[in-house]
Write a structure and sequence with these properties.
The chain is built from 17 helices and 14 strands. By secondary structure, the chain is α/β, with parallel strands linked by helices. It is elongated, with a radius of gyration of 26 Å. Bound molecules: S-adenosyl-L-homocysteine (SAH).
Length: 453
C-alpha cells in the first residue's frame, strides 16, 4: 500500500522540514507488522512529493509479534495490500511530529494552509463513501477505479498539512472498515484527538465513528456523546456537573471558551472598570470576580428575572459574597443613556447584539460607542456561516428563538468596521470554539479599541 503527499507551495522542498524527513534520504522504519519506507519521488522548488510505502509481512501478521487480531485463521486475505489501519499506524510512527502540527524548522508553515495533494492506493469502500468522507472536509476528490472493488484516491486542496494527515489517519481505516488490532477505549480517545476540529461537525460522523470503532456500539455511543458539536443550547442550558475525568477529557465547552476569550481580551486591554452590558445571569461577572486586576464590575440587563439569577449566582445577598462595591447589577436598557455605567473603561457585549431588533441596534451603537465611549469594547455574536454544521438546525433557522439575526463573518466584520470608522475605534477580530476549515468557529468576536484607532 502506498500513500503520497505533495505540495506546490514555494519552495516546495520545505515539505521535508514539515515532515521532519530529509528529501535526499530514504527513511526506513521497522513496525511490528512489517516495514515503512519514506522517500521523495519528486524534489524541486515547484513541487515536492513524499511517498510512504508499507511492506507488510504476511507471515509476521499471522505468526509474529505483530499478530493481527482476528487474522489467525486467515492466511489468505487482502490485509497486506489494502490501505488500512496499518497505514494509519505507520503514519503515526513515521510522521507523528507533523501530525501533531509541529515543525522545528518551519513552525509558521505548519500552521498555514498550503496547496496540498495526496494519493492513497489501493483503498476500498466505493466511490460514494470516499466522496462522502473527504468532500465535506473541503478536498477535491478524484477516484480511479481499480479491479476487485479497489480504487486509487486522490485529494487536492488548501489546508494545513496536519489537517490532511489527521483526515487520512482517521478515514483510511474507515474506508477499509476493519482494523488489524482490537479496539478498546483508548481508540475512542485517539479518534477524538485525531478528529479534533473537524469530526464533530462532519455530516458522516456517525458512519466514521461506527466504522472506526469497528462497530462496537458501546464505544461508538461514547465517542458520539463526546463529539456532539457545541451548540448555543448549551450556553443557555443547565449547568451540568462534570466528573473529574470528563473535565479533563472533554474539550472546553463553547460557553467556557467564550468566557475565557473575553476575559483574555479584557486583560490584554488592561481594563480595570468593566461593564458587562446584557450580563444575563452573570456568568461573565462571576468569572471576572476571580481576577485580581479588576477594580470594579457592573452588570446591566433589561431582564429582572436574569438579574435575580445573577444576584444569586454572585452571592450578592450573602455576607460571604464579594466585597461591597466591587460588583453592582443595574436594571436598564442598552438603547438609552445611563450614566451609572458610563465611567467603565471597558464594555463587554457577550451574545447580546443579536437579541436586538436591527432597527434598535443603531441606538445601542450610539450609546456605547458614541456616548459612553469606553477605551475597549468586546463584542461576541454567533457566526452564521457555522450554522450548516449543526445537525439539528434546519437551514435558515436561528440558534435561539430570541435571536433577531445571526450574522455571517462578512456581515459582522462589515458592521464592526462601520462602527469603528464612525466612532474612532480600531479593531481586532477573533474566533471562539473549535474551528472548521471552511465555516470558521461557532462564535465570532470583535475587540474595539480607541487607542488602536
Ligand atoms: N451576556 C450573557 C447573556 C446573553 S443573552 C451571556 O453571555 O450569558 C442576551 C441578554 O441581553 C439577555 O439577558 C437580555 O435580557 C439582554 N438584553 C437584550 N436586549 C437588551 C437591551 N436592549 N438592554 C439591556 N439588555 C438587553
Amino acid at each position: 500500500m502506498y500513500l503520497s503527499l505533495a505540495t506546490t507551495h514555494r519552495p516546495a522542498t520545505d515539505l521535508g522540514f514539515l515532515l521532519h524527513k530529509n528529501p535526499v534520504r530514504l527513511h526506513e522504519t521497522a513496525l511490528t507488522f512489517g516495514k515503512a519506507f519514506l522517500f521523495y519521488p519528486e524534489v524541486s522548488v515547484e513541487r515536492c512529493e513524499a511517498a510512504l510505502v508499507l511492506d507488510v509481512d504476511p507471515i509476521e501478521l499471522v505468526r509474529g509479534k505483530g499478530r493481527a487480531d482476528g487474522l489467525l485463521d486467515q492466511y489468505v486475505n487482502d490485509r497486506p495490500y489494502a490501505a488500512s489501519s496499518f497505514l494509519s499506524v505507520a503514519l503515526g510512527r513515521v510522521l507523528g511530529t507533523a501530525m501533531a502540527g509541529n515543525s522545528r524548522e518551519r513552525p509558521d508553515l505548519a500552521a498555514t494552509a498550503l496547496p496540498l495533494e495526496a494519493a492513497v492506493t489501493p483503498v476500498s469502500g466505493g466511490e460514494a463513501l470516499i466522496r462522502g468522507l473527504f468532500e465535506p472536509l473541503g478536498w477535491n476528490v478524484s477516484v480511479d477505479v481499480l479491479p476487485a472493488d479497489y480504487a486509487t484516491l486522490r485529494l487536492s486542496g488548501t489546508a494545513r498539512l496536519q489537517a490532511l494527515l489527521n483526515h487520512l489517519y482517521v478515514l483510511i481505516p474507515v474506508l477499509d472498515n476493519d482494523k488489524h488490532y482490537w479496539v478498546g477505549e483508548d481508540e475512542v480517545t485517539k479518534l477524538l484527538k485525531r478528529g479534533e476540529g473537524w469530526l464533530e461537525t462532519h455530516p458522516a460522523r456517525e458512519t466514521i465513528v461506527g466504522r472506526y470503532l469497528k462497530h462496537r456500539r458501546g464505544l461508538a455511543r461514547q465517542a458520539l456523546e463526546r463529539l456532539v458539536p457545541e451548540t448555543e443550547k448549551e450556553a443557555d442550558g443547565r449547568d451540568e456537573r462534570l466528573t473529574r475525568e470528563d473535565a479533563i477529557e472533554i474539550p472546553l465547552r463553547l460557553n467556557d471558551q467564550r468566557l475565557e476569550a473575553v476575559v483574555e481580551a479584557l486583560r490584554a486591554a488592561r481594563a480595570r472598570k468593566i461593564a458587562d452590558l446584557g450580563c444575563g445571569e452573570g456568568k461573565l461577572l462571576q468569572r471576572l470576580l476571580r481576577e485580581r486586576w479588576i477594580e470594579s464590575l457592573v452588570g446591566v440587563d433589561a431582564s429582572t428575572l436574569s438579574l435575580d439569577r445573577a444576584q444569586r449566582r454572585l452571592k450578592l445577598d450573602l455576607a460571604s459574597g464579594p466585597s461591597l462595591g466591587r460588583v453592582r447589577l443595574l436594571h436598564g436598557a442598552l438603547t438609552y443613556r445611563d450614566k451609572r455605567w458610563e465611567e467603565a473603561d471597558a464594555a463587554a457585549l457577550v451574545e447580546v447584539i443579536e437579541h436586538l431588533d436591527s432597527d434598535r441596534l443603531p441606538a445601542l451603537e450610539q450609546i456605547v460607542f458614541g456616548i459612553a465611549r469606553p477605551k475597549t469594547a468586546v463584542v461576541t455574536t454567533p457566526n452564521a456561516d457555522y450554522n450548516v454544521l449543526f445537525p439539528n438546525l434546519p437551514p435558515g433557522e436561528l440558534r435561539h428563538p430570541d435571536h433577531r439575526f445571526e450574522w455571517t463573518r462578512a456581515q459582522f466584520h462589515g458592521w464592526a468596521e462601520e462602527v469603528g470608522r464612525a466612532h474612532g475605534y480600531g479593531l481586532a477580530f477573533g474566533e471562539i470554539g473549535s474551528r472548521h476549515e471552511a465555516f470558521g468557529a461557532p462564535t465570532q468576536m470583535a475587540v474595539f479599541s480607541r487607542e488602536a484607532a
